[in-house]
Design a protein that fits this description.
This protein is an alpha+beta fold. It has one domain. Helices cover about 30% and strands about 30% of the residues. It is built from two helices and five strands, in the order βαββββα. A five-stranded antiparallel sheet has the order 1-5-4-3-2, with helices on one face. A hairpin with a 7-residue loop joins strand 2 (about 35) and strand 3 (about 45-50). It starts with 9 loop residues before the first strand and ends with a helix.
């Protein structure tokens, strides 16, 4: 069974040895744009790719990729990420 968000998007989890700045500069896949950070990009950040309907979140080496099934879920997942970042 795949791990999913409360909205039904699939979650995949990975680890990286890269710092946030190095991940963004060298490992972030092409086509992703910055969305938000709860720490002003000190420890975490979230990026999105509209064409793929995916979000990537980095937090101290943990990488979570959220793959959305459709456009409306993608927009809702973005809103949830921004709300979470605002709690920072």
């Amino acid at each position: 069974m795949k791990e999913q968000t409360i909205l039904g998007s699939n979650i995949s989890r990975e680890l990286t040895h890269l710092s946030l700045m190095d991940y963004e500069a060298y490992a972030l896949p092409d086509g992703y744009q910055y969305l938000c950070s709860s720490t002003r990009k000190s420890y975490d950040a979230t990026w999105f790719n509209k064409a793929l309907k995916k979000l990537i979140t980095y937090c101290e080496g943990d990488l979570n990729t959220i793959s959305c099934p459709d456009e409306s879920t993608f927009i809702s997942e973005q809103m949830r990420s921004v709300e979470f970042c605002a709690l920072g």
